[in-house]
Write a structure and sequence with these properties.
Blueprint lengths: L11 E8 L2 H12 L2 E4 L9 E6 L2 E8 L9 E7 L3 H10 L3 E9 L3 E7 L5 E7 L14 E8 L2 H12 L2 E5 L2 E5 L3 H8 L3 H8 L8 E7 L10 E8 L2 H10 L3 E9 L2 E7 L5 E7 L9
Parallel strand pairs: 1-4, 5-8, 9-12, 13-16
Antiparallel strand pairs: 1-5, 2-3, 3-4, 6-7, 7-8, 9-13, 10-11, 11-12, 14-15, 15-16
Length: 286
């Protein structure tokens, strides 16, 4: 798998997890995915930021809890932008708000933590030296991000205004697309568009940047939120390994169009999805 070196604006580019005990989380995810970690914070810093790597390429990170944050573990989604300040202003104009105003992260980049119009939190990343996930779409690496929402129309209006996203309904569900993203991917990997067509991918799938996941009307407890999906070679084996390492299976591995996936929870309570690509599942009902 070719490594990435940056993204275009409007594309999810990085994930990290805030953890009450980051060292314990490093042990869990290192055991689960084989990540090798480096703490990139200065020695005198009050917290830690462990970047996980595959073959030396950045994949994701484990962080101490931000100052003043509740003691809750969670995964965070970052979207690449040209200007974090301008994107924060656009989010406000579209009905969102800022949990943390734009700030510099040493020489790595500039970021903000935002809420969409329904309260789902996400981060925007204006890159400097840190160029996002370098290894993606293979075992143990970032594969997808998804927005769980109760109000599709409001989400379409918000993310359309902020990032220019559109929606695409396919047999596997509802997807966020970024027009011309496919052209960018084709430049990176010539022949990708033709390859997807040969596999039977739906028209427009090459422009997909994330998923839109409606929260059922009878689910009053789940708030709007962003989810993180990691690619795996064997969803059943990873689910069993997560339990062995002290985690929990929230949703057992199940087949869906193109995939076999499980929802897992790490020992400190952060949930994530493990997804195995299964081409022979492409015609399964959603």
């Amino acid at each position: 798998m070719a490594e990435r070196d940056g993204y275009i604006p409007g594309v999810p580019c990085w994930v990290d997890t805030n953890q009450p005990d980051p060292e314990a989380a490093v042990a869990f995810y290192g055991g689960l995915f084989g990540w090798e970690f480096e703490d990139v914070m200065p020695e005198d810093a009050p917290g830690h930021y462990y970047i996980g790597r595959i073959r030396g390429g950045d994949v994701a990170a484990v962080s101490s809890l931000p100052e003043g944050a509740p003691p809750m573990a969670m995964w965070n989604t970052y979207v690449w932008v040209d200007d974090a300040d301008a994107t924060t202003a656009a989010a406000r104009a579209a009905g969102g708000s800022a949990a943390h105003e734009p700030f510099d992260v040493m020489d790595a980049g500039r970021m903000a933590v935002l809420f969409d119009s329904e309260g789902a939190a996400f981060c925007v990343w204006q890159a400097k030296n840190h160029r996002g996930a370098q290894v993606v779409n293979e075992h143990g690496s970032l594969n997808f991000n998804g927005l769980a929402t109760r109000n599709r129309a409001a989400a379409e209006a918000f993310y359309g205004a902020v990032f220019g996203w559109q929606t695409l309904t396919i047999p596997g569900g509802i997807m966020w697309t970024l027009p011309a993203y496919g052209d960018h991917l084709e430049e990176l990997t010539p022949g990708l568009r033709a390859g997807q067509a040969e596999m039977g991918a739906p028209d427009g799938f090459i422009d997909v940047v994330a998923a839109l996941e409606p929260i059922p009307d009878d689910d009053s407890a789940t708030p709007a939120h962003w989810s993180v999906t990691f690619g795996v070679d064997d969803a059943d084996a990873i689910a069993a390994k997560a339990v062995e390492l002290g985690g929990r299976v929230v949703v057992e591995p199940a087949d869906a169009p193109w995939t076999r996936s499980a929802v897992l929870e790490d020992p400190q309570g952060a949930t994530f999805i493990a997804s195995q690509f299964v081409p022979e599942n492409k015609d399964l009902p959603a």
